[in-house]
Amino acid sequence: MNETGIKHRAILASENLSEILLSLKLNAMHDRLETMLDMCGTADLTHRESLALFCDIERERRSERRITMGMRIAHFPFIRTLDTFDFSEQASIDPGQIRELALCRWIAGGDNTILLGPPGVGKTHLAIALGREAIIRGYSTMFVTAVGLLANLTKAHSENKLEQRLAYYAKPKLLIIDELGYLPFDVNTAHLFFQLVSKRYGKSATMITSNRAFGEWGEIFGDHVVATALLDRLLHNSHVITIKGESYRLKTKRKSGVLPMTLAQNSGQ
Length: 269
Ligand code: ADP
Ligand code: MG
Prior knowledge:
By secondary structure, this protein is α/β, with parallel strands linked by helices. It has two domains: about 5-60, no CATH class; about 75-265, P-loop containing nucleotide triphosphate hydrolases (Rossmann fold). Helix content is about 60%, strand content about 10%. The chain has 15 helices and five strands. It has a five-stranded parallel β-sheet with strand order 2-3-4-1-5. α9 (about 145-160) runs antiparallel to α10 and α10 packs across α11. The longest helix has 28 residues, at about 45-75. Bound molecules: adenosine-5'-diphosphate and magnesium ion. Adenosine-5'-diphosphate binds near residues 86, 122 and 248.
């Protein structure tokens, strides 16, 4: 194409620019077209710099969308971040270990993370915050409570749909199972859980929070053989974080004088 041809084509495209951007689904470029063009002019950017800026804005929008979608799919009960976790209040946690987990290398390798500790010490907070980091890094993530998960598996089993349900829970690259052990379950349910853990084993990462020490898992599962087999799979290539101390909320209430010293100190154990 000669110079006149190029010029002619550019004029035509320019008239339809908004439409072209929409048809290419370049929505961020479309939405911010005029402001961005003004900005490129004011900042005296080269053609190359201007083009890079436009592309970068589109990329940023897509990344935000992907994270928003990922967070929706994850079904977190609420949002917590690592920034809002007060490490100075939890001496039993090594901030370096949490930062390392936040890099998500363990998820890429299909390892497991288990957060143990009494109620209120921040297990769910950390699980959600680490799940959010996983989504930001592009890993599909799903959050379930142990009670909800097991009720679902039991229902599916009774309806002859266990395989489908197991496949559903086996799919996310990171599955977060919150509050294992708050309620004990029978041996049949324990077997269903074992099947799920086996299906994910070595392929996808699982994070579990529990208020019960491993030695008590036999009681939770109603069967020591299943509990041992489960722990064998879960603990192979795993990161275990044991949080000690009292409930964060009670501690902060006690500090502010709302609770008497003794009550707050005893209830977190
Ligand atoms: P757990 O799951 O161990 O029972 P949670 O994670 O639900 O505890 O924590 C209870 C509440 O206290 C949550 O609102 C959580 O955000 C907050 N919390 C716990 N530990 C901390 C902490 N170290 N810094 C900031 N907030 C915390
Ligand atoms: Mg919790």
